[in-house]
Specification:
Layout (H helix, E strand, L loop, with lengths): L1 E6 L8 E8 L2 E7 L8 E10 L1 E7 L13 H14 L4 H18 L1 E7 L6 H10 L4 E5 L1 E2 L28 E3 L2 E2 L7 H10 L5 E5 L3 H10 L6 H7 L7 E5 L5 H10 L2 E4 L1 H6 L7 H6 L3 E4 L11 H17 L10 H15 L16 E4 L9 H8 L5 E6 L2 E3 L3
Parallel strand pairs: 1-4, 5-6, 6-7, 7-9, 8-10, 11-12, 12-13, 13-14
Antiparallel strand pairs: 1-2, 2-3, 4-15, 15-16, 16-17
Helix pairs in contact: 2-3, 10-11
The structure holds guanine and zinc ion.
The site of zinc ion has 5 residues, from strand 5.
Length: 400
């Protein structure tokens, strides 16, 4: 398949006209200039970008979007746990997984890390939905054994598996997913720690002050919330730590040492009034940052909108508490939701347009003239209507 258009190779430089060729599930050739023959897809008014990657969302929570006005711990009880409770029905879990996958595809998200529920059938439901598409996903059965409705709680000794062995032919992997320290006893975090080596771990960290206070009531002997996870062996280069809004300097330092990833969820942090993520602190401490929609605290599964919210959060910090806050450019933000997020999920061959890379990309046709402000215009005008084709594992897929 031959595809032509402006190629977003590195969004911090102005995309030039070019073409690429796909064979099987790989990009085999990428060149600037005119295509060697009539392209199968695209043309001079098209733009080719790597697909988006969402590093933090909850498949069962799409129906919970929009219940406003509650702080995190009350919102979980009033809104999130009832939505997750509905997954006790395996058929419903499967339908909702299918809806989540379709929604992601429609938004141009071609890779994700997602929380499911604590039900033993949750992974099978998600695998079934994901198996119908080549979307790349890391999914996790949620581990929790307290401070949640009993039917959503399990025990550390649960005989049903928390994770599955990676299948070489599968684009779905499973992650160790302790919900957060409040909902996990020592025994549950210890079980998560046993499973953690070499696996993706996803959890929440430092989202709201009341959550931190409650965590330290449960874990009074630990130096910090981050230190709790560290004691149980949950922090390593495959740890995806959602939010990280309220971290002290020693916690950033610990994350740097362990090579964990802070997953910034800017829309969710505004919706639940959690706070303004400190991108400068993450950068100063050399902590990797990825971006997540965090559906349902975030209301928008569109990663360009999440990228925009990251820029707006940085601007809000600059206008209020941090006059020297660095503001990411649209190009940096676009790179974050494509190649940086792909790298955070271990997709070393994803999120980029280069020979040998996975052919997971989007062909866009924006309704404005293409000029040197292309990435900013895409980001600030963004609509899924710009997406004319989604290419997944080398195949054009429909979003329905
Ligand atoms: N902390 C623990 N669980 C959740 C969740 O489902 N959403 C958010 N935003 N924070 C959490
Ligand atoms: Zn979350």
């Amino acid at each position: 398949m031959l595809i032509a258009g402006r190629l977003i190779m590195d969004a911090t430089t102005n995309p030039q006209p070019g073409w690429l060729r796909i064979e099987g599930d790989r990009i085999i050739d990428v060149e600037e200039g005119d295509p060697p023959s009539r392209p199968d897809v695209g043309g001079p008014d098209h733009v080719v970008t790597p697909g988006f990657v969402d590093c933090h969302l909850h498949f069962p929570q799409f129906d919970a979007i929009g219940v406003d006005g509650l702080p995190l711990l009350d919102w979980l009880k009033a809104t999130v746990y009832p939505a997750e409770h509905a997954w006790r029905d395996p058929a419903w879990a499967q339908i909702q997984s299918q809806q989540a996958v379709r929604r992601l595809l429609r938004e141009g998200t071609l890779g994700c890390a997602a929380y499911l529920t604590s039900h033993p059938h949750a992974i099978a439901a998600a695998r079934h939905a994901l198996g119908e598409t080549p979307l790349r996903a890391i999914v996790g059965r949620v581990m929790m054994d307290r401070e949640a409705p009993p039917d959503l709680c399990s025990t550390a000794a649960d005989p049903e598996p928390w994770i599955e062995a990676d299948r070489p032919d599968s684009r779905t992997q499973t992650a160790v997913t302790p919900r957060f320290a409040i909902a996990c006893s020592d025994a549950m975090l210890a079980r998560a720690g046993e499973l953690a080596p070499g696996r993706f771990v996803q959890t929440h960290l430092g989202e709201q002050q009341a959550e931190i206070d409650r965590t330290l009531e449960f874990y009074p002997d630990d130096a910090s919330y981050t230190a709790v996870y560290d004691r149980f062996g949950l922090l390593h280069e495959r740890a995806l730590l959602g939010h990280c809004v309220h971290l002290a300097s020693d916690e950033w330092e610990l994350l740097r040492r362990r090579r964990g990833v802070a997953v910034h969820c800017p829309q969710a942090n505004i919706f639940l009034q959690s706070g303004l993520f400190d991108l400068d602190a993450a950068r100063e401490h050399g902590v990797r940052v990825a971006l997540g929609s965090d559906i349902a605290a975030g209301s928008d599964a569109s990663m360009p909108r999440v990228a925009r919210a990251m820029i707006e959060t940085a601007k809000a910090r600059r206008l209020t508490v941090a006059p020297k806050a660095a503001i990411p450019t649209p190009g940096e933000a676009w790179n974050m939701v494509t190649r940086d997020n792909a790298a955070a999920l271990g997709y070393d061959d994803g999120g980029v347009l280069r020979p040998g890379a996975a052919a997971d990309l989007l062909i866009l046709r924006p309704p404005f003239d293409i000029d040197e402000h292309l990435i900013g215009r895409l980001l600030y005008n963004w609509s899924t209507d710009f997406i004319v084709h989604r290419v997944l594992a080398g195949r054009v897929v429909s979003d329905s």
